[in-house]
Design brief:
alpha+beta, three-stranded antiparallel sheet, 7 helices
Amino acid sequence: MWACIKVIREYERAVVFRLGRILSRKAKGPGLILILPCTDMFIKVDLRTVTCSIPPQEILTKDAVTTQVDGVVYYRICSAVSAVANVTDVHLATFLLAQTTLRNVLGTQSLAQVLAGREETARSIQDILDSATEHWGIKVSRVEIKDVRIPVGMQRAMAAKAEAAREARAKVVAAAGEINASKALKQASMVLSESPAGLQLRYLQTLTTLAAEKNSTIVFPLPINMLEEIVNKNRGG
C-alpha cells in the first residue's frame, strides 16, 4: 500500500501514465498521489526557473565582422504535460534553440547594433524563444547578452577611429573659439577707435599687468600715427 503513495514537492508536478495514456490530461501534485502498481508510471517535472547559459557563439555580423557572443536564458516549465508529451528532452531542446536563435538574430545586425542595442536584441531573442517553445510548455522569462568579444585588430581600429573623431571635434571647437574671439576683438577695436583716451587707458592697463608679473623688461607701446610722422619727416629731410 505504501508503495502506491508518492509525495510530490511544492515545486514539482507528476505526469501520470496509465496503460500508456496520460491520466486526466493534467499533472498531479503537489502533495500525495496514488500510483497503481503494474498499470501506472509517472514522471516528475520541476517547475522552478532554469538558468541556461549559452556558450560563446562565433557570429559573422551584417558588416562582415567576426565576433563571439555569449548569453543566458531564464525559463521555466508552465505546462508539465506538454513538456513531457511534446518533446523528448525539453531542456536540451531549449538550450539548442537558444544557441541557434542567438546566432540568427545577431547575424542580421551590424557590429554597432550588437554593441549598442543589447537590450533590444535580448528582447527580440526572448520573443522568438517564447513563441517557439510555447508548444513545449516553456515560458521564457528573461534573456541577457553577457559579453561581446571582437578581434584585437578591430578593437585597435575602433579606438583609432574614436580618437580621430575626438580630435576632429576639438579642432571644430577651437575654430569656433577663434571666430568668436576675432569678432570680440573687432568690436573692441571699433570701440577704442572712437575714444583715444580709452586706448591710452588700455596701454596703462597693459603696463600694470606686465609690472605685476615682476618682469625685468618693460615695453612702452607707441601709437602708430607717431611712428608714421617720424618716418615721413625722415623721408622729407
